[in-house]
Amino acid sequence: MRKDTLRLGVVGLGTVGTGTVKIVQNHAAMLSARTGTSIEITAVSARSRSKDRGIDISAYAWEDDPVALAKRDDVDVLVELMGGTDGPAKAATEAALSLGKSVVTANKALLAVHGQALAELAEANGAQIRFEAAVAGGIPVVKALTEGLAANAMTRVLGVMNGTCNYILTRMESAGLPYDTVFQEANDLGYLEADPNLDVGGIDAGHKLALLASIAFGTQVDFDAVALEGIGAITIEDISRAADMGYKIKLLGLAQMTDAGLQQSMRPCLVPASSPLGQLEGGTNMVVLEGDAVGQIVMRGAGAGEGPTASAVMADVCDLARGIDLPVFGQPAASLAKAAPAVSATPCPYYLRLTLRDEPGALAQVATTLGNSGISIDRMRQYDHSDADTAPVLIVTHACAPNDLDRAVSALTQIATVVGAPVALQIQNV
Amino acid sequence: MRKDTLRLGVVGLGTVGTGTVKIVQNHAAMLSARTGTSIEITAVSARSRSKDRGIDISAYAWEDDPVALAKRDDVDVLVELMGGTDGPAKAATEAALSLGKSVVTANKALLAVHGQALAELAEANGAQIRFEAAVAGGIPVVKALTEGLAANAMTRVLGVMNGTCNYILTRMESAGLPYDTVFQEANDLGYLEADPNLDVGGIDAGHKLALLASIAFGTQVDFDAVALEGIGAITIEDISRAADMGYKIKLLGLAQMTDAGLQQSMRPCLVPASSPLGQLEGGTNMVVLEGDAVGQIVMRGAGAGEGPTASAVMADVCDLARGIDLPVFGQPAASLAKAAPAVSATPCPYYLRLTLRDEPGALAQVATTLGNSGISIDRMRQYDHSDADTAPVLIVTHACAPNDLDRAVSALTQIATVVGAPVALQIQNV
User: Fold this and answer.
1) Could you tell me if residue A410 is inside a domain?
2) Any binding-site annotation on A108?
3) Which residue out of A71, A90, A101, A208 is catalytically annotated?
4) N or C: which end of chain B has fewer CB within 10 A?
């Protein structure tokens, strides 16, 4: 049902909240023309009432308590921009939904962990939860997947969904700087979350992947089943060796439904340097959606920031103003399957980097060990090592089962001429 | 309003129609789970009833006359996949809309020419026209623009929206073949429309651009105002000279609202080789959407073909099944402004290729002529010409007004040492 007026209560006035207020204030006529509804903010809540945010909030009612705001009679829709898996964000969301009020949120953590329960609560009360802003910032990927590709059985969802990690990896390559230095740079630039592990540990991006996987495959969101690996162990040597073989290293999310169950991972992978993902520089996000009818759709844009994220928040608000009514994850929560996590992952090629002691037969021993584990070698390079008694060796395997590869890596570690632990990274040919 | 069952009448059973029937037949359960509605085909119409299309249409009522099909009591939604600016496609569309039945169409020509009148007819009868399949095949760009970026004042829309032209241009470059040869290849491969000028003349892509411009800027669709220029005059020499300067030549659509009015063009332009548009190879489409809040969103995917286009058709059908109700061009037809076409286009840099007779002072004369026309030179290269008495000269200008550039080109043509007409192409830094 379209209403003449849609009254928003905004909790959280950080970057995204401020951007959202700006759009409502600056584009009132445009929003009204497009939605047929007057979109207004009636109440706000944040940690500080007096902080200068460059916006005038004096016309809005103030609430210290987000839950009280959610319950206000003059709030039709809760816009939750506080963040956090639990605490006030969850309490305010539940309060709004319980009263049949829809919630627009940028909170990936909340939905990745409590998504199923909240979707059930929403649908039981005739309310919606909209979360375009929670995944890949300004890119309208939730809408593309839920609506634009609704006629596809999705085959894969992939993406670079954490701009900070992509900034770090591409900056390491372009400036030839080690991880620690670029990490510090990113921190100084304010690119990192208060808990940096949310970024570099892949958690934030893993949250986003879990949300997209739920929509793509009609399954209950299951963040715990996302295989997570951060970028902290990526060295400048791996980046340049990968480039040498025609690849880039990205923190890559991958979700696919296989005969072995639902596979979800967020880990550093190699992708072809010439692919759209390989060419993605800096803090930009990219999501790749693959469906049985449409083939491959690639979407690229700013994954964070005031304007882009507020654009996504307000797109959801416009949908509500236009009377668009959709289940939270694209189909009724009760119909979402509890997917079994994949017991074995889909075979893929691997990048292996080893350090070999310079002894006769060392390379042969490595090749034999891989062969015995059923791993077949596509390309192998031993690099110049005139200044050392160890040689860097690079191997690109043919597609092999990750379990087999893990076993092979264990076996390699037992070889006396192999120095230290081999580095093994998946190659995803997107 | 969601209905329990949505009954489709499909007119046109070519590639896209066949793909649409396949999705309805193969994905009934998935579509029902996602939309809460049973989506069925009740009637079909095409030129031949007996042609083998690899699908079973025996369960559907047959109509020889598309208009009769549109009027059937058991048809809720007309799916128009015949094409054509007028004739039966228009008649069937009008018949359906007049009865308050929504129309899903892939027909860019019909909407680019009659879009405003049809939108008014639809809205007067409480019906919708949905045309995701009409623009950029499987890429959900109409949805992204209308809904996903609804909170943005759009600044520019750009794109490569004709896969055949992009195939021809990239194939010319990769194989080093002249236009005529690759044109013939494309024709033999069945890539070209029956009237090839629709493709290589930029008309088909111009139709698509006009539709996106209407949504982006809230204006009445105005195909006649699109400045059209095809790719027929592009030579292999221009492609390689452009590459030499770091550019690719693309048939590029550009729509932007300026102080001088609405600017719409579909013409061969140079784009940076390293940009997403520059990297686009083969028959793939790419649309770039720029908004004041979101910045730049890039979408890439198959622009044609059975699966991708049927995916877009069925996405619109799913929207209707889900009860989503939107004005045809994103806001009520009556509120769409009649935009004045731009009297002068926005300044941009230009690529100029001249052939100069090898005489003292020839180059200086060119530079002077440009300077006198207010055109400032960014880069200039004179190429080796030991085997000829003429020299190829390449110039990249700083941004200049297209009118000034046109005047400068006229002046250059008057110079005795300039052989033939200079080639002038816009450079768009996307």
Assistant:
1) yes
2) yes
3) A208
4) N
